[in-house]
Amino acid sequence: MRHGIGPDRTVARLGEPAVERTTDGKELRHANDRAGAIIEVRNLTKKFGHKLVLDKISLSIEKGKTTVIIGPSGCGKTILIKHFIVLQRPTEGEVFFKGRRVDDLSERELNGIRTQFGYLFQEGALFDSMTIAENIMFPIRQHAKVRNWAEVEEVVKMKLAMVGLDGFQNYFPARLSGGQRKRAALARAIALNPEVILYDEPTTGLDPIRSDIINELILKLKRELGVTTVVVTHDMKSAYKVANRIIMLHNGKIVADGDADHIRNHPHPVVQQFINGEVGEDDLAVLRMSGSAGASQFLPRDFE
Amino acid sequence: MIAALGAKAVQDVVDAGRFGRFAWRSSVTAVRSCTRKSTFPLIWTQMFLIGVHSVPVVMITGAFVGMTLAVQAYDQLAGMGLEEHLGVLINISVVKELGPVLAAVMLAGRIGGALTAELGTMNVTEQIDAVRSMGTDPVRYLVAPRLLACLLLTPVLTIFADLMGVVGGALVSFLQFGINSRAYWTFSASAVALWDVSIGIVKAFFFGGAIAVISCYKGFNCKEGAHGVGQACTEAFVASFISILALDFALAVTFKSIYEIFWPIKSIVE
To answer: Which of A208, A247, B189, B235 has the most CB atoms within 10 Å of its CB?
Structure first.
């Protein structure tokens, strides 16, 4: 929960960055965020060719908290968190990790910083030519001089036990279900005991029970490892369950930023439409105007 | 139309620059990897996949090249009564040109396609990003071992192709055309020098490097989806094939000049 944010928060209009103020009108977000910020982006702009994906985004991620980034598909959520770990470089703007600017570092310099992150990719991104145990050993092998392999196997067992997959060490990723793959990928993401875990759509494609297992895992890892968590999702049930703070992106800008209650009661129509899963009037109009089934389908007798 | 042409030219220059940077970074990383013990198992694995599995294909290619050369050249030489010199023509052609080039073309299809498809699939399924996210340089982990394995093994595979080309040519000459084997080998030994064999092996070293760098680059930069991976494989093969031919020409000119510098009289006599 972020303190000091009362009901007098200003509501960002579409196309404007969300700025939150205290009752005396003082801009709150930066002062509040920077105090315990572990990640910070300033005026982050990302373009692919002429397509603007992120438009001058400024935000901070608080240490030890769970920040959830929501927004419709294609709004730039994944691109934003890829900037946190500099898997993407900004077109303009700056990215800071623990107060150090990281977006201008070389790949070699970034390697050390990236070991402090765990990244759960949307589809898991497990190495399909390796077993689950080898996948989890991968970052350990890369960054530690292993002398005692029994110890490493013990670590693998422990990490798999944390995600409820102990016993799956010798399975290949192709033999696991979608939920199991995500849990195995999560075990790999926490192999180096990171300070920050980034989850990219952790519940997408899973049934409600498997989704809830992932949500519980996110909470468990935060509780037990004390990590800073950033979750990208469009699953509102998941967002409400795990978030200390929810940020909504729309058309490359932040349109809402606050705790779960703030988002639930947000007056902005785009936010309400998204969290309630309602189709917009414009989209409805397009659907109504498009051809009916009868007009767009042919039967064999039409050609006789 | 002019604007479109200009945009295409600019894009081609950008792509060439990107490839140049990738090739340079891969080469530097590969050289550094030679001194890191942790990379040796990765190189060893790639050498097994690239080298051992390619031996039969390359040997078959070499054998057919030698046999076909014998069949094609016999009539011309026999017409002049020089059929016993058939070995000179076959063996020089095999060790200097056809062995290295055709072995490299076979490897571009077999290894290049596999490398591009593997890395391309890793790219579209975010496995390369996963390597980066865990603080590991994907060029060091994925490209350097493949490049080193190709550099080391393409010359070795070329020796296999040369050997089979020589054997194939000799067998056809002896068994089909009844050429005297003693005369065949004597003329061959007097004409084919260590220099000729070395040229072929050095060429193979460059061909191996070109195949690995092009295939890895195409895999790293392939577009999304099955179509993207397929297209990257096709582009990798075409680009590798053209580079093999271009490199072959450039190296032939270079080695000719070197030969003329060190053995000027012999080259005039020949």
So the answer is: A247
